[in-house]
Amino acid sequence: MKSEVRVVVIGGGVVGVSVLYHLTRAGWSDILLIERGELTCGSTWHAAGGMHTINGDPNVAKLQQYTINLYQQLEKATGQSCGMHVTGGIMLAGTRERLDWLKMAKARGRYLGMELELISVEEAARLFPLMNKRHFVGALFDPIEGHVDPWGFTQAYAKAAQAQGAELVRHTRVLDLQPRRDGSWDVITERGNVHAEHVVNAAGLWAREVGRLVGLELPILAMEHQYLITEDIPALQGQKEQLHCIDFEGEIYTRQERGGMLLGTYERAGVPWSPVSTPWDFAQSLLPNDLERIAPSLEVGFEHFPALGEVGIRKVVNGPFTFAPDGNPLVGPVRGLRNFWVACGVMAGFSQGGGVGLALSHWMVDGDPGADVWAMDVARYGDWATLAYTNAKVRENYSRRFRIRFPNEELPAARPLRTTPLYEPLKSAHAVFGDYCGLEHALWFAPSAAAAHETVTFHRSNAHEHVAAECRAVRDGAGLLEISSYGKFEVSGAAAAEWLASLMANHVPPVGRIALTPMLNERGKLIGDFTLCRLSSERIFLICTWAAEVYYRRWFERHAAPPGVTVRPCATEYVGLSVAGPRSRALLQALTRTDLASAAFPFLSFRQIDLGMIPALVGRISFTGDLGYEIWVTSDYQRALYELLSEAGRAHGLRLFGARALNAMRIEKSFGTWAREYRPIYGPYEAGLGRFVDLNKGEFVGRTAALAERTSGGALRLTTFSVDAADADASGDEPIWHEGRVVGWVTSGAYGHRVGRSLALGYIPAALAAASGGFEIEIIGERRRATRESCAVFDPDGARMRA
Ligand SMILES: Cc1cc2nc3c(=O)[nH]c(=O)nc-3n(C[C@H](O)[C@H](O)[C@H](O)COP(=O)(O)OP(=O)(O)OC[C@H]3O[C@@H](n4cnc5c(N)ncnc54)[C@H](O)[C@@H]3O)c2cc1C
Q1: Which residues fall within 8 angstroms of residue 713, CB to CB, at 6 or more apart?
Q2: Three-state DSSP class for 650?
Q3: Which of 147, 254, 572, 615 is most buried (most C-beta within 10 Å)?
Q4: Which atom of ligand 1 is nearest to the CA of 42?
Q5: Separation of alpha carbons 7 and 194, rounded Å
Q6: Do the strands 574-580 and 479-482 form a parallel or antiparallel pair, or are they unpaired?
Q7: What is the pTM of this model?
Q8: 8-state DSSP, 660
Q9: Which atom of ligand 1 lies nearest, measured to the CA of 317?
Q10: Closest Cα partner for 43 from 345, 296, 250?
Q11: Minimal-distance CA residue to ligand 1 atom 17
């Protein structure tokens, strides 16, 4: 074993070898993979090996597509068979809602270039004769699904990597990891030490344990998972290999295995395995079968696919594999640790492992993953994702693996966890809550406690009319919104402004003023949108997206602030309320001696102001696009502030509103938001943020690329559409058609209650940015006429905001 390498990859499962292989492809060969047993001895060896392209996040779906196409390359390069069977796959719908879901999946597949086909039950039964037609209403066919031999696929990666110079040692456990001052690592193993510049934790079932070696508690939990293989089924003899099949209502998947069928299930009462720590003596091992636990699913399976129940069971497999709380992988550099990377929590290693390796290798070699990997970035979780939180969420996610997640659905596990002082008062006001980073926040307000429940649907829900009333209240009078769920940082020190100017695309505002600014990566792509509020020459308050706090902190560490500048995350220290609407100024003015008239406190002002007895930071800004103020206080004052505003608001018809109304109003203003309109695949000019890029202020990260984008105009354009919708609005990821061709995708959609029409934001090619007509947006399988708007549909000149 070498004693000095550039990278040590810990773990020889399908993910570790993929990282190894992709690092060699990216040009690094001085790499060592350390495996404590044999390759595949963790969760990989007993996998069912199924591969599929569909994923809730289109960017992850793209990486899954990449993985599936990789096996041919690997086989060719190494001569090692991956045991690939590209049978095609069929997803069966047993309800109308599931059929709607399949229509939406097909629609999403259109702009990913996937050849998905909606087929009738008759056609499905022709392709997959084992099904009992009686239980189904339709199906989706995907020609590139299949399954691999887990061992063969893993060996192929390893051989290809070794051929490029990578080294691999087996039967050697990594016992400890010690950081050096220069950011490199001493990797302490059973067979001596290795000094490595970088360490990758691809330890699968033991990723938590390896994380703990460096003080990291990764939000990962293994779940037991069972599948069985039937004895030979006579009807299959002499037939073409059966398709992969997912039966959503039965919550089972099935595929052919030699002369029989393999049938697996994600049962509702899933059982975690080793919830606190994973035993080291578990290698090439399985768990005792528990058919009782999956009996309800098997019963449904045998009813839906009778031939499977007519033969005996040849083999049952019960093995553990890991999940993150949302079911997507955890990939990337870890904040607070230099040169420490993770590639774990990969629950579908054969669909996702290739994409994970590809993205991580680019990240390590080029400093950027080269794709939009937000949905699997380890930075999407913060300290709130504790062991117990992860346990509750993973069990929920596992039990819902084949259930529909409706666009308006909030999941109940691990709630309520974080609350602000307004939780009880808002609950008394009949708030329907959602969960954001573990924090309860009001989505909308019902007229009574009995009505404070939302039906989950792809169509407009029972919340529609109440959200409408909230939007009208803001438009015609005043609304009150809790905004505690925004991310916040305080940057202070003599060189605070200078440092921020080097990171942000816009200039840092003068004292007392606010500036909106994108943050760009070196490629000039959007990695954040911030509101900079200048409190004093040396103190700047940043407002941003809370879900991206760890992501931002990691970036701030990479572009370290100079000595004397402190960057302090303070999202939970400052909680807030926003008042918005034409009467909001009069309401606030009644509470302070500070002159709030436009001349004295114009749009984009920021100041410390006493409201009644409460010291607050007040910004004249509002995401609703109406006259409005954001008020920040420490949490001990929030309840008093709420009571003060509510009392004063009575004279102005103040009404509570929630996140749903805010979303509808920001779409009416064509305001984008992080992870929807703003992601690292878009440039600022494409996203309509060009006015917030100050190319004249001097150097900043991404300036050269931004300048190039301004010159070229960029390839895409964020566009607002009015949609001739029926009773369902776009919600995101719908395809945008132009003259019969899919040309783009929706990023957000909602009903715009202030303007009385259905709206969508989405990206289209820049060349179509001026096209006058011919657009359609596909909502639940129906192409709806869409009118391109050349500006925001509500108050396009911003007169109300600035009034
Ligand atoms: C029953 C079952 C069916 C499945 N079916 C499918 C399927 O159809 N399709 C699909 O895509 N996925 C399936 N999976 C999931 C799939 O197996 C996982 O996604 C995949 O194995 C994850 O691979 P990994 O490399 O992350 O982890 P692992 O395979 O667990 O690999 C981690 C490796 O790290 C090594 N290691 C850990 N700690 C150390 C250390 N300190 N020092 C040295 N080495 C260390 C371990 O020995 C292990 O070999 C299934 C899983 C199960 C259990």
Answers
A1: 685, 766
A2: helix
A3: 254
A4: 30
A5: 10
A6: antiparallel
A7: 0.96
A8: H
A9: 1
A10: 345
A11: 44
As a 3-state breakdown, the chain gives helix, strand, coil percent values, each rounded to 5, of 30, 30, 40
CA of 42 to the centre of ligand 1 (A): 5
pLDDT in tens, 209-218: 999 999 999 9
Q: For ligand 1, pick from 206, 261, 322, 360 the residue to mutate: most ligand atoms within 8 Å of CB.
A: 206
The predicted model gives 105-109 an average pLDDT of 90
Which tens digit of pLDDT belongs to each residue from 411-449? 999 999 999 999 999 999 999 999 999 999 999 999 999
Give the dihedral sign, CA 169/171/172/174.
Answer: positive
Q: Using one digit for the tens of pLDDT, what is the confidence trace for 642-672?
A: 999 999 999 999 999 999 999 999 999 999 9
Closest ligand 1 atom to the C-alpha of 349? 19
Buried b (16+ CB within 10 A) or exposed e, 198-224: bbbbbbbbbbbbbbebbebebbbbbbb
Pocket test for ligand 1, best of 22, 43, 274, 284 (most atoms within 8 A of CB): 43
Ligand 1 cavity residues, CB under 6 Å: 10-16, 34-37, 41-44, 46-50, 173-174, 202-206, 210, 225, 227, 317, 319-321, 344, 346-351
Q: Residue 691's closest CA among 676, 671, 675?
A: 671
- Centre of ligand 1 from the C-alpha of residue 220, in Å: 13
With H, G, I as helix, E, B as strand and everything else as coil, classify residue 510. Answer: coil
In the beta sheet, which residues pair with residue 746?
Answer: 762
What's the pLDDT tens digit per position in 687-736?
999 999 999 999 999 999 999 999 999 999 999 999 999 999 999 999 99
Tokens representing residue 714 in the block: 């960029």
Question: Whose alpha carbon is nearest atom 14 of ligand 1?
Answer: 47
Structure tokens belonging to residue 658: 């929630």
Question: Which atom of ligand 1 is the closest one to the Cα of 147?
Answer: 8
Structure tokens at 460: 């407009």
